[in-house]
Amino acid sequence: MHQPQVSSRADLAQTAATLLERLRTRGPRIHCITNAVAQNFTANVLLAAGCVPSMTLSSEEIGAFVANTDALLVNLGTFDRERREATEIAVEIAGQEDVPWVLDPVFVDRAPPRAEFARTLIARLPTAVRLNRSEFAALAGTETSREATMAAAGANGITIALSGETDLVTDGKRTADIANGHPMMARVTAMGCAGSALVAACLAVEDDAFCAAAAALLMIGVAGELAAERSAGPGSFAAAILDTLYSLDGHALAARAKVS
Amino acid sequence: MHQPQVSSRADLAQTAATLLERLRTRGPRIHCITNAVAQNFTANVLLAAGCVPSMTLSSEEIGAFVANTDALLVNLGTFDRERREATEIAVEIAGQEDVPWVLDPVFVDRAPPRAEFARTLIARLPTAVRLNRSEFAALAGTETSREATMAAAGANGITIALSGETDLVTDGKRTADIANGHPMMARVTAMGCAGSALVAACLAVEDDAFCAAAAALLMIGVAGELAAERSAGPGSFAAAILDTLYSLDGHALAARAKVS
Amino acid sequence: MHQPQVSSRADLAQTAATLLERLRTRGPRIHCITNAVAQNFTANVLLAAGCVPSMTLSSEEIGAFVANTDALLVNLGTFDRERREATEIAVEIAGQEDVPWVLDPVFVDRAPPRAEFARTLIARLPTAVRLNRSEFAALAGTETSREATMAAAGANGITIALSGETDLVTDGKRTADIANGHPMMARVTAMGCAGSALVAACLAVEDDAFCAAAAALLMIGVAGELAAERSAGPGSFAAAILDTLYSLDGHALAARAKVS
Description:
Chain A has 260 residues and is of the alpha/beta class. Chain A has a single domain, classed as Ribokinase (UDP-N-acetylmuramoyl-L-alanine:D-glutamate ligase, 3-Layer(aba) Sandwich). The first copy, chain A, is built from eleven helices and eight strands. Chain A has an eight-stranded mixed β-sheet, with helices on both faces. In chain A, α1 crosses α8 (191-205), α8 packs across α9 and α9 (209-229) packs across α10. The first copy, chain A, is globular, with a radius of gyration of 17 Å. Chains in contact: A-B, A-C, B-C. The interface between A and B is medium-sized, with 29 and 30 residues.
């Protein structure tokens, strides 16, 4: 029953290179319900990776957008009425149309109403959830640990990507620990949100959610390392990571992947 | 009756240089109702060109802003309730005060309610409409062609700027085909929206809408070519096009214009 | 009774260096109610300075965010219903919890309803107000002058930071004239808004509002000068000022401060 650890260093670098190629040749549509701070950078990350992003929130038309998208991102970074309405509709349509979707429950550790809304969304079974340790603890009501994360993924049948110094991706059975990335990524807003968007992008071109999520985090982590080497601070870094993601290739992925 | 083809290469480059000079010396106010993804970049494009942008959407005050602006941009990229209300008021005031305005019916090919709203706006006769081939087809209900575009412009008495690999600008009688630009422009979000904002800017300093629209598209196209030469990917390109637009001059316009 | 002019060149440069160090080591939370155009750049300025920004506007949760923030920014750049509701709650909680807050009454000279709303906020005694000469005149109903600014600050017990070619900071008794900065700062959107956010950041780590506001304006002014020297136009400048703010130190502040 147990699937192998497909996440060896070489395997995952190869998977990421393959998915990047698919993104660039297929140009999937990714619809994003994301916070106002992150919208521009998220769109640019998706464009740099080869996707066609859309961002509308209007309840009259979001159904039409989601029905024709290849993946959906739901980010709770700004938790206004309009976005909650849009999310209800979008998640409903995504379920009907079998559109894979990612939940990024930003800052659920900072406000109880947001955590409650996030829990109702998780009950509707996103394909993947990407969050940090504090956000996990706030939602799970337990300490964040490797075991708790695997249990939560397994119990719900979803892939969880837990970000941190080392990212942990798990579907409850398989795990990948990805130690790529750079501290400068925490000095630019919306970097995590953009990572979640990249998870959605990979889900659009790969049915195995675990592989898609792990590949996406590897891509953004390696792109971040390359960008840090060519930038003088967070402003030039934010531009450089779009450049490095745009030109990222299997060679750099294989050479730099720190996966276990 | 027929006006000459003012759009010869040398003519249009000269017109663009003149309008750029006017923008920099007059600093016209440009009010933008645009989507949340595009607001920041649009404001920066307008500032780089010498304008003073404003972006408020509040129905209580948009009338005051539009009454005192030199041109108005209406972009449908995020089609929320607030923006539709703001648009109704803004277009009304623009008509009363003779403020030129540009419609950018983003993604009308993706959602019927948006197309319907765009049609009601076109009936109120924007000075110019900027859109791509799919958007034109969705609004016109016909195949997009040179003839259909000229006919739509002539019938409504508006200038249409149809973007594509070669942009076509027409007022129904005159046409300009502008083959400037760079593929990297499609890898940065809001580039088209910013082009529409530049059309609004040129309308603020030039009464001939055909000349204004063609000059604006030439400016952004040449700025894009120059930016591509000095950037390493879409992130550095997005910064570089603001730099090249800021320092664009008649020499570069004349040397690079591909107009027929 | 009279406090000394703490704002001599050396004093203020030293204060700014100290506050910058505090920001980087303490990482204060800064909650921002700011306009959609400025959100991303403001968040990046705060991150570059070492802070943790949050931006939510939802009336259900803004109370929880403000109760746990170290300072609050209220910027009126987009004056929509949601932001006004959020502002009412946020200012109430800030008062209860003794959270310092900054008001940036953007464009109050352009629309009467906005000026009226700004006046009700000033009556609730922000810790500091940052605005330009036209905005001051619109709110005060008088010509903008050094004396009128000092009188307004003294009468309300608030610190006023009046931006212009030379910035004037005053609490009614003390004054600092800061002649740093660069014209390119006016060619990038949200630069003033980001300056106000930096005032909020400094208030989070320094109780003397006059010193905090003056130090913040010195920081952004010097960062702007350094950025202008390494950029080719407004696009590269916007990235560079994040880089220079990130690496700003006491040496550069002392060498460049133009304070009297």
